[in-house]
Write a structure and sequence with these properties.
The chain is mainly alpha-helical and about 180 residues long. The chain has eight helices and four strands. The strands form two sheets. A two-stranded antiparallel ribbon has the order 1-2. A two-stranded antiparallel ribbon has the order 3-4. A hairpin with a 5-residue loop joins strand 1 (about 20-25) and strand 2. The longest helix is centred in the middle third of the chain and has 19 residues, at about 55-70.
Amino acid sequence: MTINQATIDLVKRWEGFKADAYRCPAGVWTIGYGITAGAGIGVDPKPGMRVTEAQAERHLAQALERFAAQIRPSITAPINENEFGAFLSLAYNIGAGGFRGSSALRHFNAGDKARAAAAIKLWNKATVNGKRQTLQGLVNRREDEVRLFLTPVAAQPAPSAPAPSTNPLVALLRALAALFGGRK
């Protein structure tokens, strides 16, 4: 399953670009588009560290591929690219281990997409200053993930017939072939 642009856009929107390393609400050093040392791509944000937006986009692409590789094997039901993208965004935010143990994955693999979508919304809490609390930003992010999860993937257009030729000779030959059943 490939990572579509809607997924990348969703993650970028919710992580936001920050050139300078910062501590997220959970106290973890972060940089770029939500990259932490836990992303496992060789970037270990520290105070004073800085990245360009181009570097941050490369880091994000590497991190999303890494997370995708970690969650793909646990998805056993047929999945479309938007469902996968919503799960990837969730895993990027809560960790691959958290995702693999989630009721969202369990319900999806059991074929209950409605319950899987509802279970995505449960991941709206973080520990801030030692207290577990609901964060409005996580509530909003989960809503966007569910929206992507429930968005149908456009069907691929059927191959079209070749356009009729505007060459009068070709048109005449086709008409004759049709008239005489294509016999030589």
